[in-house]
Amino acid sequence: MSEHDDDHTAPWDPALGRRTLLRAGGALGAAGAAGTVGALTAAPALAGDGVGGTRDRWLRPGDEGYEEAVAGFNTTVTHRPEAVVLAREARDVQQAVRYAGRHDLPVAVMATGHQASVPSDGGIMVSTAAMDRIRLHSRSSSVTVGPGVQWGPLMDKSSRLGLGGLAGSSRSVGVVGYTLGGGLSPALGRLHGYNADHVTRLEIVTADGELREATPEQEEELFWAARGGKGNFGIVTSMDFGLFEVRRLYAGALMVAAETAPEALRAWRDWAREVPESVTTSAAFVQVPPDAPLPEPVRGKLVLSLRVSHVGDADEGERLLAPLRDAGTVLADTVREMPFTDWGEIHSDPVDPISAYERTTLLGELPDEAIDTMVDLAGAGSESPMALVEVRQLGGALGREPEVPAAIGHRDAAFTFFTIGMAPPEDVDEVREYAEHLIEAMEPWSTGGAYVNFLSSDETDPRDVARAYSGEVLERLLSIKSDVDGTNMFRLNHNIRPMP
Q1: Given CA atoms 240, 244, 250, 256 in this order, what sign does their dihedral have?
Q2: What is the pLDDT of residue 426?
């Protein structure tokens, strides 16, 4: 099979571009009334920018399409930027960055808005949702993606070649943003590591408005920092990374009655310790919505969901899973042989925008005392307001340095610990306080670190962001940030501040 392009973009049409921004129902999360314009009082003059561009790709408060453009999947943070740039190509991004530089404005970037950080008020937001080109390279088992590509469409296309990637838990998560934070796959992670480990090339617009190519041999420091440092070093306009031969998984979830969770969690921990790297797994207390697309016995109930993904023969997967099926009272068993394109069923994440308040830490171990604490605070009878409380096993390839290092911290952690609460505004304080209580309760077994893609809008203080990196990694990131973005233009995020 020859190398080929698989391109699903179309010639620019302003109306189409704005409709594209209704990603994953994002308009449902739009909030706020039209605001006044600060530094941007008119569409920018394009002459002198050194790039092309068209005025109808810039939206200001009050313009048709502005509210849809600023709406993210996670609606806990609302955005009121002075302008939104509907980028279709790299030169649109350059134009926005150069304009912001001339007017001393911060720059934010958003494709899907799954991870909430800080409001982009007073800045320029670059929407990359329409930059959704996919080019598959079958001879090298790799792909080139634009920053608007989501995992679902990419895996649907790559599956035609028998290839899959280290996708996140949801089909609607953006590929590039997820990868810049590491990219922890619930299906293939322990077998292949982080998706950032397999990136071979980036095109990135830095704070000076230049479009740079970063590879292991060119712009090496920028290449290292961007893969793990999120959007702190520029706006990625194109990314190349490797895919893997995978057509089917033996995967799904065992949903156990919360009352039998103490025994089931211990059994899961012991089982996970012994399984091969072909298995990626997590355990989570989940408050299942009454209308969830899951088996009737678990709808509306608190369950312990034991998630499993085995890459390999289904018979071998069934043999591996057999001890876990006896771990507790199983209310629903969705584990089956499935095409890789169904990997999203492992976690069954929400498909519509949500108001999600999250907190996270990393664990070095999960002894009985930690399990008891988790059960007491999140299990049956706990009256926990959290929608999810999860431990996700790491290790395997996730714990090993790749051939080309990336700025991913704490590879020695054993588990992520992650909790999500979804609440209307009047109940937000209860959810936030309980989430903080959970993190504090797990502190005896925490490494003190965090996985940057799981940081929330409540964890944007520099001290919180620093938790995502070991001391040596953070020091190097700070130095590179000072070199490429000394004015901290890219600060509307989980920010790595340049050195004074």
Answers
A1: negative
A2: 82
β-pair partners for 453: none
Given strand 124-127, what is the order of strands in its sheet? 58-59, 83-86, 124-127, 107-110
DSSP string, 236-258: EEEEEEE-EE--EEEEEEEEEEG
**167: CB partners within 8 A, 6+ apart:** 151, 154, 155, 173, 185, 187, 188, 343
For residue 95, what are the CA distances in angstroms to 86, 98, 417, 452?
11, 5, 40, 29
CA dihedral 357, 363, 368, 370 (to 10 degrees): -40
Q: Is 48 exposed, middle or buried (0-12, 13-18, 19+ CB in 10 A)?
A: exposed
31, pLDDT greater than 50? no
Instruction: Give this prediction's pTM.
Output: 0.89
Q: What is the distance of C-alpha 174 from the center of its chain?
A: 7
Biggest CA-to-CA distance, the chain: 69
> What are 438-496's pLDDT values in tens digits?
999 999 999 999 999 999 999 999 999 999 999 999 999 999 999 999 999 999 999 99
The two structure tokens encoding residue 65: 């399409």
Distance CA 243, CA 44 (A): 40
Interval 256-290: pLDDT, tens: 999 999 999 999 999 999 999 999 999 999 999 99
Tokens 């397999």 sit at which residue? 198
CB neighbours of residue 169 within 10 Å: 20
Q: Which of 164, 172, 355, 310 is nearest to 242 (CA)?
A: 164
What are 338's two structure tokens?
């499935």
Digit-coded pLDDT (tens) for 147-195: 999 999 999 999 999 999 999 999 999 999 999 999 999 999 999 999 9
Token look-up 């706006």 returns: 235
